[in-house]
Amino acid sequence: MNPMTRSLTIATWNINSVRLRLPLVEHLIAGWAPDVICLQETKCPDANFPTSSLKKLGYEHIALNGQKGYHGVAIISKLPFSSSDARPFCGKQDSRHIGVRLTVSGSARADRTLVIHNLYVPAGGDEPDPAMNEKFAHKLGFLSELDQWLGAGSGEDLAIVVGDLNIAPLEADVWSHKKLLDVVSHTPIETETFEAIRTRGGWIDVMRQFVPSPEKLYTWRSYRAADWSATDKGRRLDHVWASPALAGAFRSMDVLREARGWDRPSDHVPVIVKLEV
DNA sequence: ATGGTGGCACCGCCA
């Protein structure tokens, strides 16, 4: 490794209740030891977040935007934050974003600032018609605000966006493109808007740098499947975007497919990236 | 064959 860079591992995972699945978070930590873990759907108020357990495991820096019962995002980190912020969307009080600023110290160069945004985009309900389904209208409104924000670019030299974005943009991101064209998460209005925001903002689809289309790549499989592994009807709903300055920085990307088979699993699996900054 | 499962909360809602 270049001694003038620092290696950093970042995980993103929709955990579907951080309290119920704290043992799985601990398992992820024991096996992969990410420097930073971005969680979505923590489903608990900040006061109930398992802060002390995670601090004992070395994640002493924790930024929370939780709420009771629904949504909720968190960033836990071995590295300190110089600041954090939570953005509101659509005039609602949903906890769907937390952002942090990390100072990454290189041994022989000036410190560099890395911004990480952790997002939980609305799922959007079942009916892909905003006139009939206000949850889908909310999702489209959320994307419109994301376009104004992230579509305008990173705003920072070194920036990463991760999270459950609840859209599978490419044909290779779903088990059947044709069967899912009318299914919320893969409708043309969603996939086209998603890719328009990403490309207009100059964001790199980091996962697809490592597993290019048309190879299938999934991060989510329904709880309703009788046998998730055999049928493997998955979707890539979780994403890692990076600003242009990070184009050459990523060294690895792993989708922990096996995590879908862990005891009492989340329906999403962790995605882990390693980069040098 | 048009279901199914899972979490949280409170006895329905959301995913």
What does this structure look like?
The chain has 277 residues and is α+β, with helices and mostly antiparallel strands. It has one domain (7-276): Deoxyribonuclease I, Chain A. Helices cover 21% and strands 27% of the residues. The protein has helices at 22-32, 51-56, 134-149, 177-180, 188-200, 206-210, 228-231; strands at residues 7-14, 36-40, 61-65, 73-77, 81-85, 97-104, 112-120, 159-164, 204-205, 220-221, 234-235, 238-242, 250-255, 271-276. Strands 3-4-2-1-14-13 form a 6-stranded mixed β-sheet. Helix 3 (134-149) runs parallel beside helix 5. The relative contact order is 0.16. The mean pLDDT is 96. It binds one DNA strand of 15 nucleotides through loops.
User: Strand order across the biggest sheet?
Assistant: 3-4-2-1-14-13
User: CATH superfamily, please?
Assistant: Endonuclease/exonuclease/phosphatase
Looking at the structure, the CATH topology is Deoxyribonuclease I, Chain A
Distance between termini? 11 Å
**Strand composition percent:** 25-35%
Mean pLDDT value: 96
pLDDT < 50 stretches? none
Under the CATH scheme, the architecture is 4-Layer Sandwich
Q: Give the structural class.
A: alpha+beta
Helix content: 10-25%
Q: Measured on Cα atoms, how large is the radius of gyration? A: 18 Å
Main sheet characteristics: 6 strands, mixed
Count of extended strands: 14
Q: Supply the number of helical segments.
A: 7
Q: How many structural domains can be distinguished in the coordinates?
A: 1
Sketch the topology as an H/E string, one letter per element.
EHEHEEEEEHEHHEHEHEEEE
CATH class: Alpha Beta
Overall form: globular
